[in-house]
Amino acid sequence: MSSSKKSDSTLKTIRISDPFTDQKPGTSGLRKSSKHFEQLHYLESFVEAIFQTLQGVKGGTLVLGGDGRYGNERAIDVILKMGSAHGLKNVITTTKGILSTPAASNLIRSRKAIGGIILSASHNPGGLNGDFGIKVNGSNGGPTPESFTNAVYEYSKNLTKYKIIDTPSIPLSDTGHFSVGDMTVEVIDGVEDYLSLMERIFDFDQIQNLLRNNFGIVFDAMHAVTGPYAKKLLEEVLGSPKGSVRNAVPLQDFGGGHPDPNLTYASELAELLLIDKNYDFGAACDGDGDRNMILGKGCFVNPSDSLAVLTANAGLVPAYANGLTGVARSMPTSAAVDVVARQLGIDCFETPTGWKFFGNLLDANRISICGEESFGTGSNHIREKDGLWAVLFWLQILAERRCSVKEIMQEHWQRFGRNYYSRHDYEAIDIDKANTLYNRLERLLPSLNGQQFAGQRVTFADNFRYDDPIDGSTTEKQGLRILLESNSRVIVRLSGTGTQGATLRIYLERYVPPNENLNHDPQQALSDLISEINSLAEVQRITGMNTPTVIT
Length: 552
Ligand code: VG1
Ligand code: CO
Description:
With about 550 residues, the chain is an alpha/beta fold. It folds into three domains: about 10-190, Alpha-D-Glucose-1,6-Bisphosphate, Chain A, domain 3, CATH 3.40.120.10; about 195-415, 3-Layer(aba) Sandwich (Alpha-D-Glucose-1,6-Bisphosphate, Chain A, domain 3); about 420-550, 2-Layer Sandwich (TATA-Binding Protein), CATH 3.30.310.50. The chain is built from 18 helices and 28 strands. The longest helix has 18 residues, at about 430-450. It is globular and about 70 Å long. Cobalt (II) ion (CO) binds near residues 122, 286, 288, 290 and 291.
């Protein structure tokens, strides 16, 4: 064991008043530009508020790591020195501080930690000109609830001092045991534990068999955290050809890219599968490894459909072979999974956007699988969404069924019907304009009831409110819903994760039963709904934008 020199705990007095006033209340953790985080004492102030709020810090174990973006190692250094000053007993961190969000969730659970601090702004760009972020997860491995985030915020308002020890920094270049003051730090290889978790869920032999037999696979790590995980899992253990994992080295600025696996930001991968059609299977994950995009040859799998397919095929995966207790989806996610759940005779819950709302249902064993339309799927194996888990799930299905992704989708729709679905994002719009649009539409909702909307009758229109069936808590104003007859819907929300202006999200959905045309282009199938909401909400006039920034 190497040990740093004798250290002094210093109480630093700071002079930044109310540093987090512009933090959006209710959002998990803090996401800001990297430059914002570089302000004197800014990071430290937020960390102080976390340590003052988190339960069990004295004598506890904490998991710490991040997605490798600019600021990652500096933040780890600061948090170690502050954690020691606050009496933490042990910190588990990783070489180079590389730790995906799902792997962190797993470590928190398996090491019985009080929680974890994950350094990531997820799918937001990184680098000096990008974003940085800090997320706090609780002892169940999942995002802390809103009550925690609000308590951190409240504490930070009156914060004038923070505790830190003055001691040399420890290296993160290799695994090993270190001391930071009286606190021990275990630097581990973050990939190993995650790998063995995946081994316990899936039948690796069967997936190996698929990957070693002329199966064209390409995975895009987008120069973010999943690179080392995917290299090890797919290339080394499961035997996919060398080079099938692209952009595998995590870079501080993600190579200048936007580590968001969708058709716009992962366009290189999309082109390989949808235009060149050289591969059977393609996938990508986001900055911190919790999102996934799935592509087949000439086939994009909509994330809402992906959740439905995983649910319908869960019996093929050893960990779920005995059946699912239930499933859940976030409100804007399409109801494709609801149709499957009905046929399976299991519960299907509808929660607000954000993984934290699945936590109670998972902890109470009311659901086994859950997901969001924003490329997030996961299960009771951890308390975060899990990008590579979803990729392995798809590979297990393909290994068993030995057909193409496209055939899986076709058969799924022929059995359950198709929920045509799309999300239109208008990014970086002026905050006042976004609020004007949203508030105006909200005021219009009561008058829509019973009226015609895109040729269909409005059965219900409201601002979604969630009553948690486990702890009885209520969460209001989670998105404007316009529900139409025959299971069509339009949802309008403002994003809680952007850092530049506001992002308006419009979610569109139309269900067609198995006997109707299942092969329309979604934009075409939804065109009535698109033009109706655009004109009702005056999207173009108010935002000044003629087309969405991203269409999924
Ligand atoms: C977005 C997604 C939401 C997801 C959240 C965090 O939120 O829509 O489904 O849970 O990002 O994902 P919003 O408020 O911008 O719509 V991640 O990959 O940052 O952990
Ligand atoms: Co993410």
